[in-house]
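Hey, can you fold this one?
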Amino acid sequence: MTTAWNEDQLYSSKRQDWGTPQALFDALHEEFGFGLDAAATAENAKCLHYIDKDSLFETLEDPMPGSLWANWPALIPGSEFSSRRQEWICKQAIWLNPPYGKDIGKWIKKAYRESLRGCTVVVLTFVRSDTKWWHDWAMKAAEIRLIKGRIKFEGAPSAAPAPSCLLIFDESRRVPQFTPVTDLPRR
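Sure. Predicted structure:
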């Protein structure tokens, strides 16, 4: 028997800042070499350099709080902007375990756009192939890795309510992994 997700089930947690399991992060850090945690708190940051919701960044008009306004590549130690190539040369990758709420699409969009600046951005998120944000932004990932089983986030009483995946945004890895199917009958 299957049941449809409703709004309460999709966003049922009062918390949105679940910490990445250390063993999972360590395995990925060994592969990618992260220099920035783009959505963290002091308690759950996985990198020495991290952005929390209270970080302020100068915009054209006013200082704006949080990671969605930051220039992520500029915050990675050793990164340089190449005026010739008009992109950042990032020495380390960016880790993102975004807040799991109604703004998740903004986070995935930001990760994709930051990758276009020349950096690798690895995102841990739920598999939500039935949503607009998934098709608009997650499908732009160079690689999508589906994680078998459910993750138990740090501080969570039990495993996650939905399957997780890794979205790897890195234009140098671009190989088609998935194709959306919209013209086949579903009943």
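Residues 1-12 have pLDDT under 50 and may be disordered. Let me know if you want another pass with a different chain boundary.
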